[in-house]
Specification:
With about 170 residues, the chain is an alpha/beta fold. The chain has 3 helices and 10 strands. Helix 1 packs across helix 3. The longest helix has 19 residues. It is globular and about 45 Å long. The N terminus and C terminus are likely disordered.
Length: about 170
């Protein structure tokens, strides 16, 4: 099965798992996580993306690296290493679950494999909601050429005691 547009699906699915389906427009800010931001184009008010449809559609396996959490504090709240590890583990497993429905998830490079890297680059409490910024990149596992990328900021329903431990943030 070939998916014609997998990267936005993965990015949106990741955000949906972490913060729910609602969104409030906010311009994403580049953190420096992606190998290149040059080809990104606006998809909507909260998302910039680049997709090489031919190359990305040719992969049938994905290496999913641990999710990086680049947030060290949110306004008024320090993010601990334990918080970062929990968020990283949860997000990576959610991505593995989603991608493995249609593709093999592997650990070794091969000609038909893309590597997926994801970073949570910002987390904010906005009234009774949580906002997350994600950066996602797919690269060819042999050439390291970027075949897809997205930067997205979304806010969703979450009544928070802190930015990660609220059960509603993970539904």
């Amino acid at each position: 099965m070939r998916m014609t547009n997998p990267l936005p699906l993965v990015a949106l699915a990741g955000v949906a798992w972490l913060v729910g389906c609602s969104s409030t427009p906010r311009t994403p800010v580049s953190s420096g996580f992606l190998s290149s931001y040059n080809k990104l184009e606006w998809a909507d008010a909260t998302t910039q993306r680049y997709i090489d449809y031919d190359r990305l559609g040719s992969y049938n396996k994905f290496i999913i690296h641990p999710v990086k959490v680049l947030v060290s504090e949110t306004p008024g709240l320090k993010v601990t290493e334990a918080d970062k590890q929990e968020a990283s583990t949860y997000m990576r497993q959610a991505l593995v679950n989603a991608i493995s429905m249609n593709y093999a998830v592997v650990t070794e490079p091969s000609p038909d494999t893309a590597e997926l890297t994801v970073a949570i680059t910002d987390a904010r409490r906005e009234n009774n909601r949580v906002g997350l910024a994600l950066e996602v990149e797919a690269i060819d596992s042999f050439s390291a050429v970027q075949v897809g990328a997205a930067v997205q900021y979304k806010t969703g329903k979450a009544h928070l005691a802190n930015w990660w431990n609220a059960p509603s943030a993970r539904k």
